[in-house]
Fold this sequence. Notes:
Helix content: 25-40%
EC number: 4.6.1.12
Binding site for a divalent metal cation: 9, 11, 43
Binding site for 4-CDP-2-C-methyl-D-erythritol 2-phosphate: 9-11, 35-36, 57-59, 62-66, 133-136, 140, 143
Low-confidence stretches: none
CATH architecture: 2-Layer Sandwich
Number of helices: 6
Number of domains: 1
Largest sheet: 5 strands, mixed
Strand order of the largest sheet: 4-1-7-5-6
Shape: globular
Site (Transition state stabilizer): 35, 134
Protein name: 2-C-methyl-D-erythritol 2,4-cyclodiphosphate synthase
Amino acid sequence: MMRIGHGYDVHRLVAERKLILGGVEVPHALGLLGHSDADVLLHAICDAILGAIAEGDIGRHFPDTDPAYRGISSLKLLREVIALAEAKGYAIGNLDATVIAQRPKLAPYIRKMVANIAEACHADIRQVNVKATTTEELGFEGRAEGISAHAVVLLAPIEISRELDV
């Protein structure tokens, strides 16, 4: 049985923080505020995977009240979420994610984000898609107050997902 999950995350942009998206440090004057590295893209992906396997959300597994997760790389969190999915017999069939940010322009960093995500998910890069869009200066993303991300994932039983390898 295939399983589908959707994830969403948002973090405020603030001074004196690195901007990490998809496990890539993106040069920018502002970074995302959060207990971990605040990688909204990876958090949305984690939530999509957790949703697909009916395991709640990222906050349940990695609470911001736990000092063990302070400043942690969200790539590590994604690897733990994938291990949980694999323990239940599921692997990535495909993953599609969108980052919503007015600034900075993310196109130069997308390929590395895809590579990081594919590696962490034990998937082929052809199973992972990341795109970025603006809001035409509307809303909190448009005013550059924060960045959000959506992710949709299709999980397949491990033996089937290997056949789906593009």
